[in-house]
Structure formats: structure tokens, C-alpha cells
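Hello again, I could really use a second opinion on something today. I've been staring at a protein lately and its backbone has me curious. Can you walk me through what the C-alpha cells say about the fold? Take your time with it, there's no hurry, and the full record follows here:
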Amino acid sequence: MTGINDLPSLVIATLIFLAIPGPGTIKLFTSMAEKNGGPKAGFFATLGLMAGDAVWMVLALSGVAALAAAYPRAFDLLRYAGAAYLAWIGFTLIRNAKQTLGEGKVATGAGRGPWQWFREAMLVTLSNPKTIGFYVAFFPLFIDQTTFDGAATYARIMAVVLALVFGYCMWLVAAAQLAKRVFARYPGAGAWLKRLAGVALIGFSVKFALQK
């Protein structure tokens, strides 16, 4: 493909990166676990994750990473804000574990829809500003200098990455649907899974706040 060096390696590297569990994966599953969630919630959460990734990729390519390196304190503020948002989501999951799964008096998932799932998933991705550093380091590895044609090459790489994100997340949605049948039989286990997801998100928030 014009401008891309070693497309198979780009695909493999992206899939390996996606296979590492992160806050985006957790958010995808928790959106599906809402009372009126399911595959529809997984689909719109996936679009939100892709939107967040697209923003970071564009910022990485536009030189914002260099600007962040020049003004590290501003970058730190962004990082702390993202960590606080993840911690808030984690706390909410722990607090509302039973209600989210339809076991409590109030079904907090009721009344929520595509916009909420999309927005929250996008914000989870945007809550980790270190992602921009990853893309800054990632993209140059797969650029063929002999056929590089500027923005068009970047657009092709972004398209490949985003297509892989979509395909991988749809696979996760299908797997989650199978697992949901088990949790429907054992709702207490599902509630504990939500609590563990909340703890994991809080853990990610601490990691993002402390990493340099």
C-alpha cells in the first residue's frame, strides 16, 4: 500500500496492542452490561473508542506531541484530568454494580442510549494523553519514505488502525454476548465483575496520574 512499509507487520502490531486489556476494553464491556445495553451499546461504545483514537492520532500527526514536550506542566494537567475522569467512572461502577445489572431498586442503565455510550467511551480513550506518545512512536515505523505522500499516507495508516479497532471490538462484543448468558444465571457474579472493573479503572487512573 502506497506510503506504508510492511502492512502485515502494521496489522500484527496493532492487534497485539489491542489485545492488551485497557480502560477502553473495560468501558466497552460495562456499557454492554447495562440494563438496556447489549450489542447496541457495544457498537456505539466502539465508535466512541475509535473517535478517541482518531483524535489522538490526528494530534500526534499535527505536532501536538512536540508542543506537549515543550510545555510538560500543561500536559501534566491534561493527564491528571484524565486520571480523575477514569477514577470517577471506576467509583461509579463500584457504587452502582447491582443497579447496573438490574438487581437493585433503580436501574441506572435505563434511559441511557447511543450518545451516552459513545461519549463516555470516547472520553475514556481521551483520558489517557500518553496515547499520543504511542502514536508518535508507532506511525514512523510503518512509513515507506520512497512512496510517502504526506497526509494521504497518514490517512491510510489511520484507516487501517481504525478498521482493526472496529473489527476487534466487534469480536469482543460477540464474546461478551456469550458471557452474558452465564452472568444472567449468576447475577451475583456479574455484580462482582462490575466491581472488579471499577477497581481496575481506578487502578488505571492512579497509573496515568503517576507515570512520567
In short: Residues 9 and 116 are 35 Å apart (CA to CA). Residues 151-185 form the longest helix (35 residues). The chain has one domain: 7-210.
